[in-house]
Design brief:
The complex is a heterotrimer. Chain A has 5 helices and no strands. Chain A is an all-alpha fold. In chain A, helix 2 packs antiparallel against helix 3 and helix 3 runs antiparallel to helix 4. By secondary structure, chain B is an all-alpha fold. Chain B has helices spanning about 1-20, 35-50, 55-60, 65-85. Chain B starts with a helix and ends in an 11-residue tail after the last helix. Chain C is mainly α. Chain C has helices spanning about 5-25, 35-55, 55-60, 65-90, 115-135. In chain C, about 35% of the residues are buried. The model of chain C has no long low-confidence stretch (mean pLDDT about 90). The chains are: A mainly alpha, B mainly alpha, C mainly alpha. The interface between A and B is large, with 47 and 43 residues.
Chain lengths: ~120, ~100, ~140
Amino acid sequence: MIEQILSHMNYIGAMALFVIGLHTVLTHSNLVKRIIGLNIMETAVFLFFVSIGTITNGISPIFTPTTQTGFINPIPSALILTGIVVAVSISAYSLSLIIKIYEFTKSCELKDILEDNS
Amino acid sequence: MKHLTALLFVALFLVLSWGVLSMPAMGDINAPAHNNLAEYYKTQSLNDTGAANVIAAIITDYRAFDTLGETTVLFTSIAAVVSIMGATAKKGDKHE
Amino acid sequence: MNDIILKTITKLLFPYILLFGFFIMMHGHITPGGGFSGGAIISAGFVLYTLTFGLHAAEAKLPHHVLKKVETAGVLWYILVGLVGTITVGSFLTNEQAGFPLGSAFSLLSSGMIALLTIGIGIKVASTMITLFRTLIEEHHD
């Protein structure tokens, strides 16, 4: 049991980061902290996906004149590069929305915005 | 009330990690993620493309069309942000 | 910010940050790195300059109309390199069959289309990050 948990440590770490990010999004009322929680959840998903491709005693997939075999799987790393760029775009767009909300209602807390419009 | 939500999140973490324990172990060489496409990329990419970095060869030669779609995503994010913030004309542009 | 330590260190470090980002971009097919990391490092250099010296000084160094043209040039360069394959062979974005010279492995002038595409991606990512930062930090004096 213990050695099964230790050999799946990367997946369990990704799940822990995901739950931490979810707790940050759901419980804080400041809008900028919610965007930070969203970034933590995206980091957890990237960690989960990239760590699928690792092999014990494997080296980075860069050819040199001396090493030609024994690489790890390069496909998950190449797929996640696109995901990182999508995460940056989402964060930039939501931050610009927060700036416009602040200019309109003079507050960054969700409590004040909701009871202002009620 | 705060302790109840913290307990709910710990329960969610336990359920998720129990579900994840049935995946293949970290670094297992018989995992189904290492199929013959990965073997082809690891052995033949130097002869096909001449690039020493296998991941650069994947994202700019074998799957270059996906990278084109990703530059479109960056372009769309600029368009979305500028349309929200209101593109301001600088004082120097009035002469054009 | 009007701190003299920040201004001196930024003036000293700024060309070396750009050189380092350019090095990672050009060696994308030999060492780890590539277009996205190189573009992010170059944009980090310009964001540091903007934070230290203010928005007006940074816009004098890299004006807005130059940045607009550089960003569209990145995407158009990528598409033009792909269209070379359509004209000669008949399929978009081909490397060896379209006539790009593959060169000798492990050297800087190798792997045909990959080096050209990496430069296009790096320029596009750098100009996107700089434009996003400047748009978000602008203050409207109404």
